[in-house]
Amino acid sequence: MADIAATSDAAVAAESDGASEGDATKPKGLKRFLSRRNLIIVAVALVLLVGGGGGAYMTGFIGGGGGEAALPPQKPATFYDLPPMTVNLNAPDKRAQYLKISISLELGEHTTAHEIEPYLPRILDAFQVYLREIRTSDLQGSAGVFRLKEDLQRRINTAVYPATVTNVLFKEILVQ
Prior knowledge:
By secondary structure, the chain is α+β, with helices and mostly antiparallel strands. The protein has 2 domains: about 1-70, no CATH class; about 80-175, Tetrahydropterin Synthase, Chain A (2-Layer Sandwich), CATH 3.30.479. About 50% of the residues lie in helices and about 15% in strands. The chain has 7 helices and 4 strands. Strands 1, 2, 3 and 4 form a 4-stranded antiparallel β-sheet that branches.
């Protein structure tokens, strides 16, 4: 009986010290926090936090706030309206098909409408010749209209060189 009491007293003393035979291998307090797994998690979180903060600062989401002031003021765009054109399209079945088109030209940064006007007959001729060869199937969908836009811009820049046109804008496209 004395042995049982001594054993139970030793067990109570060991529990009050915070160490028992099974707990001797487990780290406590700071040692548990500094385990290898926890260090890796903390390091990854720190890298993500610093990287995310740096990325947000560089893109202008946080800090500075002067990103808008650093941009140079934009020059307002200049447009030149061409007269509306009506052309007959290349129809394989010899049935008359017409294209009515109204175009506005967005002029380059250093180009003015006065530089474009002397070339207007050349521009209209280039457009008429090109548009008469188009079939209605060439104008199908947004891809067809985009190709038409690119081709017209290339032709007009050739006609008005050294002036530049940055974009061809369709105001009206009607196929009949």
